[in-house]
Specification:
mainly alpha, globular, 221 residues, 48% helix
Length: 221
């Protein structure tokens, strides 16, 4: 249970959660400084590689280079999230599903490669620079996914006390989830991050994410 806040004990944490502000002004400024510094640096370094990915997407698949979708971030605010497109055009998510599954037939071959190495996520750095997201935080979920999850687990609303993130404590501890039952564990990890946030915890998550990216470490460790 290390690294999670069991939902059964959430009532003990309600004063902190219901206050509506879990980050102090100093913590917010530290987090935003890290987001801008890391986000701008990586985005600039990634531009040449990103142009190559964009060209390959146009060569192997019909449709736009980027995929955009409304997602939810801090305070329940909607924003437009950007990714490299990895699915066929108009391959909408089936009604009632939580997210894409492994070997999803809607994903074209090069898109599968991008997803495997998380390269489709890099355009989200622009979302970070704009202030829509943070480098580290709860995953920015689909609106339909949130509706399903909140109906089952009302505590899901507490994830919106901090900005959504490209990576996060739940992502490195649990990895990809696509079943409603798995979202309980995801939520418990996110609550742990929110209640135990520190600048050093963000650095730890970024470091572990980089190890995962380099294939030195698997998801769910």
């Amino acid at each position: 249970m290390e690294g999670r806040v069991p939902l059964e004990s959430v009532s003990e944490k309600l004063p902190a959660l219901k206050s509506g502000r879990v980050l102090s002004r100093r913590q917010f400024l530290c987090k935003r400084t890290l987001d801008l510094g890391f986000g701008i640096t990586v985005l600039v370094l990634f531009v040449p590689f990103g142009l190559l990915i964009a060209i390959l997407i146009k060569l192997v698949s019909e449709g736009p280079v980027f995929y955009s979708q409304a997602r939810v971030t801090q305070g329940g605010r909607l924003f437009t999230l950007y990714k490299f497109r990895t699915m066929r055009v108009n391959a909408d998510q089936p009604e009632g599903t939580m997210s894409t599954k492994e070997n999803d037939p809607r994903i074209y071959p090069f898109g599968r490669f991008l997803r495997r190495y998380h390269l489709d996520e890099f355009p989200q750095l622009w979302n970070v620079i704009k202030g829509d997201m943070s480098i580290v935080g709860p995953r920015a979920e689909y609106i339909k996914t949130l509706e399903i999850a909140k109906k089952r687990y009302p505590e899901f609303e507490y994830r919106e006390l901090v900005p959504a993130g490209i990576t996060g404590w739940a992502q490195i501890r649990q990895g990809h989830v696509d079943q409603i039952e798995d979202y309980r564990i995801k939520l418990e990890h996110d609550l742990y991050y929110i209640l135990n946030y520190s600048f050093w915890m963000d650095l730890q998550v970024i470091f572990l994410t980089m190890l995962t990216f380099l294939r030195l470490r698997g998801h769910g460790a």
